[in-house]
Structure formats: C-alpha cells, structure tokens
Design brief:
This protein has 145 residues and is α+β, with helices and mostly antiparallel strands. The protein contains two helices and seven strands. It has helices at residues 52-64, 125-144; strands at 2-6, 15-24, 27-33, 43-45, 66-81, 84-98, 106-112. The protein is globular, with a radius of gyration of 15 Å.
C-alpha cells in the first residue's frame, strides 16, 4: 500500500471520499462505527452531486454531532493498493460545539491526546494525522510572523 499527498488539486471527478482530522478542546476526535470495535478518523464518501467541502461538513456532523466548527482543506491524496488507486481530500476541523450524536452508523465518539492502538485503518490513519499536524504547525508558524 502507498499513500501520496498532492500540492495541486486532483480532478474533482476522481475524489470519492473525505477525511476530517478534527479537534475539540485541543483533543483529537475519533469515532467508532456501530459494527467495529476500533477507532477511526471521521470521514466518508461523497454523495452524488456533492463537492468535497460539503461532504466534509456533512460527514463531520453525521459522525461527531459537530454543530459549530471551522473547516479547512489540507490537500488531496491517494491510496494505492494492489494497483488500484483511490483519491480523497484531507480536511482539518476545529470544533467549537458538539451536539447530540445523530443516529447514523457511528456508535461513539472519543477524545484523544494521540492515536490509540486499536485503529480501523492503522496503515493509513497515522499518515493522515501526521500530514494534518505538519500542515497545522506550518500554518501556525506563518501566522506568528
């Protein structure tokens, strides 16, 4: 498996999912699907006619109950497995207010200081988190100047 990050935007038609690295009160927000015992970063597939930004807003609400948040696109990326390539967009969210968890596929949300060992996608999620943290630290340093 291989993960590539892109500085340029990938053709919109190729993007099939979004992933949102979200923080609430400076803690990482992870979710647990009803059918799994492991934790994962919020995200999901784009619906027909939906752009990646609106998909990220929808998924963040559906999977965490986030009501007020700032959402920022980090980059597009690809995951290659056995010659098959899929594309997604990585977002960063700072959640200000969380409401009740909607009744969808997510059973529970959790707040973490670091990624737990029980991850749904352990071969992907650490790389996505690192990319988001690198992006955040560079953005923060640039704002301080």
């Amino acid at each position: 498996m291989k993960i590539d990050f892109y500085t340029e935007n990938i053709d919109f038609e190729k993007i099939i999912y979004v992933v949102i690295i979200a923080f609430y009160r400076e803690r990482l927000v992870l979710v647990r699907h009803r059918e799994r015992a492991t934790w994962e970063i919020p995200g999901g597939h784009l619906e027909i006619g939906e752009n990646n930004y609106n998909a990220a807003k929808r998924e963040l609400y559906e999977e965490t109950g986030a009501k007020k948040f700032q959402l920022e696109r980090i980059c597009d990326y690809s995951v290659t497995r056995e010659q098959a390539v899929s594309y997604g967009t990585l977002f960063l969210a700072d959640i200000d207010e969380i409401g009740e968890l909607p009744d969808f596929e997510i059973y529970e949300i959790g707040f973490f200081d670091h990624l737990p060992s029980q991850l749904t996608y352990p071969e992907i999620q650490p790389f996505l988190l690192k990319k988001a943290l690198d992006y955040f630290s560079k953005r923060y340093i640039q704002k301080d100047r």
